[in-house]
Amino acid sequence: MRTLLMIKPDAVEKKVVGKIISMVEERGFDIRDMRMKRFTRDEAEKFYEVHRGKPFFEELVQFITSGPVVGLCLEGEDIVNKVRNFIGATDPSKADPCTVRALYGTDISRNAVHASDSPENAERELKFFFENC
Ligand code: CMP
């Protein structure tokens, strides 16, 4: 099973990409592929399609296109759930201590990372970064 972990523009700007990748390695996750890119508006709207119409959608699209992001393809048994536990709650102030969002997130919008919430979404989201992951 595979999942997408995406390091968001706020974490790139804070220069904590290396620290987050170190956490991934220390946790023992297998990195299968990795790529930095910048989303176009069209891609961002498609990536976050499920949130279209929500009050935060416009802000979300603007933020995610505001700078480069880093996508990691992680592979392993039950990897979707494991990575979601590893990053912590969406709102960094509610995330468990020592999770990525607790350590590096600022607020619910600038929360450092995103991870796929199901195996189906993982396959869909990985395609935005990798052709053959
Ligand atoms: P992410 O895991 O990338 O998925 C959707 C993102 O929307 C989420 O993390 C948050 O950064 C962002 N967001 C902004 N406001 C909210 C909100 N009120 N509820 C949920 N997500 C929000």
Question: How would you describe what is shown here?
Answer:
The protein has 133 residues and is of the alpha+beta class. The chain has one domain: Nucleoside diphosphate kinase-like domain (Alpha-Beta Plaits, 2-Layer Sandwich). The protein has seven helices and four strands. The chain has a four-stranded antiparallel beta sheet with strand order 2-3-1-4, sandwiched between helices. The chain starts with a strand and ends in a 7-residue tail after the last helix. Bound molecules: adenosine-3',5'-cyclic-monophosphate.
Topology at a glance:
Blueprint: E1 2-7, H1 9-13, H2 17-26, E2 30-37, H3 41-47, H4 57-64, E3 69-75, H5 79-87, H6 100-104, E4 113-115, H7 119-126
Antiparallel strand pairs: 1-3, 1-4, 2-3
The structure holds adenosine-3',5'-cyclic-monophosphate.
What is the compact description of this entry?
This protein is α+β, with helices and mostly antiparallel strands and about 130 residues long. It has helices at about 10-15, 15-25, 40-45, 55-65, 80-85, 100-105, 120-125, and strands at about 1-5, 30-35, 70-75, 115.
